[in-house]
C-alpha cells in the first residue's frame, strides 16, 4: 500500500489516481497527524508526502518516523523546493525529493524502488 | 484721515485745481448776482459749485465752500440792497441761502455714504480672492483688484464684458442647472476652470451669491474665486506618488510571499500534470478505464482554472493602476488576501480563525488596495507570531457590521494575533513612514495601510490585547447608494 499525504485535495486526488492506475493500493491523508493516527499506517510500503503543511510539516513527520525507527521509504514532494529542506531530507535518508509539478516517470521510479527494497521491519 | 487721502487722490493732482475751478464757477454767479438788476434768486446757482466740491475736497472743504457761497450771496445782497431791504428781496435771499444750506447738507451726507461704500469696496480689494459682480445677463459690473491680478484683465477692460466668455469658463455641470441651483438656494459653489488673459488655465473654487433687490428679485451675482490650481496640482502629484508607493510596497509584499505564491501556482499545475499522466495510464490499460480517465480530465480542467485564477489575482496585485472605486464586499477582500497568505501562516504553524459575518454592508473602494491592506495586516500578524514560542499561534480574522452612534453604518475588520506585540514607546510610531520594528522591514506597510484606509474615508487603529499580541481594526464607511 502507498500512503499519500498532502493538505491540498486536488494534488492528493491526482497522485492517488496515478498510483492506482499502476495497480497499487493507496491510502490518502490530509495531514501528517492523520497519517500518524491512522490504523493503516503500518501497512504502508512507501510514503509520498508534501513538505509544507499546516501544523506538522513533512520534514517533522519524517523526524518522528525516524525516531520511532520506522524504515518506511519516504518521497517528498514540494511546490517550493528549498535547498536547505532538500539537504535535510537527503541527509535523513529520504528516498526522493521532488518539486511540483513532477513527472509521473520520476515519482513512479521512486515508488518502484521503494517496493523493490521491501524487506521492511514491522 | 483715509477719506481725505482718497479724495486727494481722486482730485485732479494739484491742490490748486479745485479752488481755481470753484473760483471760475463762482465768479460769474457773483458778478451776475451783484451787477445785473434781475429780480431772481441767482444765488441759488451756487449749488453748482457746492455739489461737485464733494468730489474734490473733504468735509471741511465742503463746509468752507458752502460758507464761501453764503458769504458771497450775503455780500451781493448788501451791495445791491444797501438801503432798501424790500421784502421780496429778503425772500429771494432766504430762498438762495436755504438752497445753499440744504445742498450743503445733502452733499455732506452723500459724501459720507459714498466714502463708506468706497471703503467697503477697498476692503474687497484687500483680499487675494478674485471677486466680481455680474448682472443677470452675465455682464461684469464690479471687478476687484484680486480679479485683476488673477485673470490679468484690468477693471476697465473687464467691466461690461460677459463673464463666461471673457474667462472662457468651464462649468462642472450645465450652466442651466447651475443657474437653477443658484436661483433656488441663492448661492452656489463649485470648481470652475477659467482662462487668464495670457491663455493659462486656472482652477478656482468658486462661491456665488445671488443679490436681490428690495422686492426680492434677483439682480446680480457676486462671484468669489479662490485659485486652487497649485493645490490641485500638488494633490494630483501626491496621489500619483501614493499610488506608486502603494504599488511598490505591494510588489515588495509579493516578494515576501514568493514561497506562498510558488505554492499557489505549482499546486494546481502539479495536479494537472499528474492527472494527465494518470489519464494516459488509465487509457493505456489493456481494458481502458474510461471512467477514471474522464475523472482525471475533469480534474485537469478544474485545476487549470484554479491556476489561472491565482495568476489573475497576482496580476491584479502587481498592476500599477490608479485606484478604481467600486462596490466591494470586505469578506471577499479578506478571502482573496487570505488565499495568498494562508501558506505563510501554515508554514509558521499558525492556526487561522475566520469569523466573517455574512450580513456585511458593501463599501466603495479599490479592491486591490484594500486587499493590500488586509495582506499587510495578516503578514504583520504572522511575522509577529513567527518568533514566539511557548504559546499557541492564533490569527483571528473577523468582519462585522459597524454602527456608529450617529447611525452611520460601515464594515469592520479585525485582525488579532498572539504575537510579540509592541512596546508602548513604539506604539505611537507604528503608522509612521520608515518606522519598522522588523529587522528587514521598510517601514512603509502600515503607513501605506493608513493612507489607503483614510483615502477610503475609513479609520485604522490598533490595541494591545489583554493577554498576548495585538489587534488591528479597520472601519470603512458603507456604500451610500446601492449601485444597481
UniProtKB/TrEMBL annotation, chain A:
- Which InterPro entries does the record associate with it? Bact_response_regulator, CheY-like_superfamily, Sig_transdc_resp-reg_receiver
**Where would I find the Response regulatory domain in this sequence?**
1-115
Gene Ontology biological-process annotations = phosphorelay signal transduction system
Superkingdom, natural source: Bacteria
Keyword Disulfide bond annotated = no
Q: What is the lineage of its organism?
A: Bacteria, Pseudomonadati, Pseudomonadota, Alphaproteobacteria, Hyphomicrobiales
Query: 4-aspartylphosphate occurs at which residues?
Result: 50
**What is the native source organism of this protein?**
Ancylobacter rudongensis
Q: What is this protein called?
A: Response regulator receiver domain-containing protein
Automatic annotation (TrEMBL), chain B:
Query: Into which EC class is this enzyme placed?
Result: transferase
One Gene Ontology term of the molecular function aspect: ATP binding
Q: Which PANTHER family match?
A: PEROXIDE STRESS-ACTIVATED HISTIDINE KINASE MAK3, SENSOR HISTIDINE KINASE
Q: Does the keyword Acyltransferase apply?
A: no
Reaction catalysed by this enzyme: ATP + protein L-histidine = ADP + protein N-phospho-L-histidine
InterPro entries named in the record: HATPase_C_sf, HATPase_dom, His_kinase_dom, HisK_dim/P_dom, HisK_dim/P_sf, PAC, PAS, PAS-assoc_C
Question: Which EC number(s) does the record attach to this protein?
Answer: 2.7.13.3
**GO biological process terms on file:** regulation of DNA-templated transcription
SUPFAM superfamilies tied to this protein:
ATPase domain of HSP90 chaperone/DNA topoisomerase II/histidine kinase, Homodimeric domain of signal transducing histidine kinase, PYP-like sensor domain (PAS domain)
Protein name (database record) = histidine kinase
PAS domain residues: 116-182
Which species does this protein come from? Ancylobacter rudongensis
Signal peptide interval:
none
Q: Where are the transmembrane segments?
A: 12-32, 38-57, 62-83, 89-108
- Residues annotated as domain Histidine kinase: 260-480
| Entry keyword set | ATP-binding, Kinase, Membrane, Nucleotide-binding, Phosphoprotein, Transferase, Transmembrane, Transmembrane helix, Two-component regulatory system
Amino acid at each position: 500500500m502507498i500512503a499519500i499525504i498532502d493538505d491540498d485535495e486536488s494534488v492528493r486526488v491526482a497522485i492517488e489516481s496515478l498510483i492506482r492506475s499502476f495497480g497499487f493500493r493507496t491510502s490518502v491523508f490530509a495531514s501528517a497527524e492523520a497519517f500518524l493516527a491512522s490504523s493503516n499506517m503500518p501497512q504502508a510500503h512507501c510514503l509520498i508526502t508534501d513538505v509544507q503543511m499546516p501544523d506538522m510539516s513533512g520534514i517533522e513527520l519524517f523526524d518522528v518516523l525516524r525516531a520511532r525507527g520506522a524504515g518506511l521509504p519516504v518521497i517528498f514532494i514540494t511546490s517550493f523546493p528549498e535547498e536547505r529542506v532538500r539537504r535535510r531530507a537527503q541527509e535523513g535518508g529520504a528516498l526522493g525529493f521532488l518539486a511540483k509539478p513532477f513527472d509521473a516517470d520520476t515519482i513512479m521510479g521512486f515508488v518502484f524502488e521503494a517496493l523493490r527494497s521491501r524487506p521492511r521491519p514491522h | 484721515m483715509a477719506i481725505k487721502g482718497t479724495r486727494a487722490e481722486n482730485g485732479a493732482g494739484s491742490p490748486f485745481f479745485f479752488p481755481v475751478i470753484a473760483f471760475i464757477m463762482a465768479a460769474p454767479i457773483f458778478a451776475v448776482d451783484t451787477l445785473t438788476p434781475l429780480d431772481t434768486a441767482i444765488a441759488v446757482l451756487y449749488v453748482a459749485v457746492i455739489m461737485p466740491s464733494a468730489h474734490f475736497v473733504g468735509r471741511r472743504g465742503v463746509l468752507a465752500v458752502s460758507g464761501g457761497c453764503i458769504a458771497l450771496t450775503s455780500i451781493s445782497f448788501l451791495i445791491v440792497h444797501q438801503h432798501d431791504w424790500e421784502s421780496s428781496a429778503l425772500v429771494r435771499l432766504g430762498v438762495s441761502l436755504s438752497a445753499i444750506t440744504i445742498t450743503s447738507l445733502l452733499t455732506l451726507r452723500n459724501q459720507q455714504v459714498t466714502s463708506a461704500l468706497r471703503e467697503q469696496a477697498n476692503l474687497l480689494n484687500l483680499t487675494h480672492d478674485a471677486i466680481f459682480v455680474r448682472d443677470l445677463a452675465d455682464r461684469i459690473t464690479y471687478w476687484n483688484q484680486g480679479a485683476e491680478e488673477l485673470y490679468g484683465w484690468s477693471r476697465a477692460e473687464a467691466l461690461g464684458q460677459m463673464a463666461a466668455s471673457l474667462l472662457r469658463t468651464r462649468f462642472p455641470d450645465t450652466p442651466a442647472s447651475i443657474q437653477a441651483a443658484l436661483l433656488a438656494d441663492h448661492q452656489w459653489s463649485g470648481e470652475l476652470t477659467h482662462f487668464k488673459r495670457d491663455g493659462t488655465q486656472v482652477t478656482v473654487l468658486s462661491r456665488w451669491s445671488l443679490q436681490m433687490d428690495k422686492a426680492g428679485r434677483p439682480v446680480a451675482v457676486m462671484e468669489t474665486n479662490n485659485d486652487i490650481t497649485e493645490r490641485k496640482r500638488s494633490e494630483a502629484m501626491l496621489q500619483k506618488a501614493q499610488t506608486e508607493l502603494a504599488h511598490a510596497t505591494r510588489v515588495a509584499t509579493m516578494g515576501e510571499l514568493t514561497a506562498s505564491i510558488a505554492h499557489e501556482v505549482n499546486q494546481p499545475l502539479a495536479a494537472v500534470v499528474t492527472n494527465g499522466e494518470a489519464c494516459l495510464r488509465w487509457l493505456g490499460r489493456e481494458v481502458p478505464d474510461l471512467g477514471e480517465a474522464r475523472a482525471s480530465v475533469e480534474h485537469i480542467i478544474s485545476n487549470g482554472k484554479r491556476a489561472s485564477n491565482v495568476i489573475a489575482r497576482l496580476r491584479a496585485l502587481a498592476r500599477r493602476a490608479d485606484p478604481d472605486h467600486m462596490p466591494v464586499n470586505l469578506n471577499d477582500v479578506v478571502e482573496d488576501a487570505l488565499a495568498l497568505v494562508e501558506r505563510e501562516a501554515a508554514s509558521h504553524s499558525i492556526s487561522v480563525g475566520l469569523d466573517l459575518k455574512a450580513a456585511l454592508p458593501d463599501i466603495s473602494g479599490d479592491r486591490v488596495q484594500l486587499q493590500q491592506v488586509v495582506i499587510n495586516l495578516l503578514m504583520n500578524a504572522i511575522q509577529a507570531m513567527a518568533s514566539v514560542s511557548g504559546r499557541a499561534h492564533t490569527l483571528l480574522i473577523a468582519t462585522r457590521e459597524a454602527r456608529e452612534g450617529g447611525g452611520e453604518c460601515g464594515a469592520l475588520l479585525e485582525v488579532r494575533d498572539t504575537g510579540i506585540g509592541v512596546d508602548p514607546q513604539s506604539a505611537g510610531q507604528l503608522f509612521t513612514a520608515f518606522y519598522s520594528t522588523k529587522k528587514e522591514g521598510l517601514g512603509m506597510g502600515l503607513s501605506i495601510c493608513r493612507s489607503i484606509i483614510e483615502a477610503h474615508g475609513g479609520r485604522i487603529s490598533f490595541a494591545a490585547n489583554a493577554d498576548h499580541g495585538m489587534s488591528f481594526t479597520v472601519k470603512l464607511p458603507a456604500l451610500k447608494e446601492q449601485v444597481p
